[in-house]
Amino acid sequence: MKCDAPVGVFDSGVGGLSVLAEIRARLPDESLLYVADSGHVPYGEKSAEYIRARSLAISDFLVGQGAKALVLACNTATAAAAAELRAHYPDLPIVGMEPAVKPAAAMTRTGVVGVLATTGTLKSARFAALLDRFASDVRVITQPCPGLVERIEEGDLDGSETRRMLQQWIDPLLAEGCDTLILGCTHYPFLKPLLRQMLPAEISLVDTGAAVARQLQALLDGRDLRAPAGSSRPTRLWCSGDVDRLQRVLPILWQEPVDVQVLSAG
Fold first, then answer.
1. Hey, where are the domains in the chain?
2. Which of 3, 145, 178, 185 is catalytic?
3. Which of 74, 145, 178, 239 is catalytic?
4. pLDDT for position 265
5. Interval 83-119: pLDDT, tens
6. Fold matches, 7-97+209-262 and 101-206
7. Would residue 3 show up in a list of annotated catalytic residues for this protein?
8. Of 214, 213, 170, which Cα lies nearest the Cα of 188?
9. Is 74 a catalytic residue?
10. What pLDDT shows up at residue 45?
């Protein structure tokens, strides 16, 4: 594998762009490929078998585009498909996502941690294992957020409906004494500005995008696959859904100019 080969990243939609931004900030010389599987969003309400099939199809596509590493920029896809993808591509560096239970448990002062996530993530065995490993000494209150991913896919980051949905979910968490809130979906970091308006100043927000970028760096370094300085090429992006809609939303979520192509995989 060549060092200047690109890194492939995918999510059920635009949420993984929050992770892509962390990768770009930490590894500016890497060339990036991104697949928004918007034609199948949200993953969080679909079966594990369905998500595994989509993840394998998209990973095959990205590998076909020359990807030297894969990033599953989706908590639900990681829970459903990471093990199978690592078995399918034993020699390929693969980085997954998981809700930030460990840092949140260390951070909380009240001992109460809230989790905003998709139904698929909260029901997964991977999430249950995280709670067993890292949250035995704290109280974790989980809150599924059906419909929130779709609001973000539409670019509605601060509208009245998005605000109403968040309010109904965070109010009970605050009433229970939650002082640390895990954003357990890669879409949700785009709502940080709105959440900062709605939450008391002492509430901590935690996500894992930066940790994923660090892990990717470690894997590339460990295999001598870091791109040479100055070798980055323009980001390439594919979409399985409404390309025109994604083009309208992109300027809100991604700071680089990029052309969106139709995904032919799956």
1. 7-97+209-262, 101-206
2. 185
3. 74
4. 62
5. 999 999 999 999 999 999 999 999 999 999 999 998 8
6. yes
7. no
8. 170
9. yes
10. 82
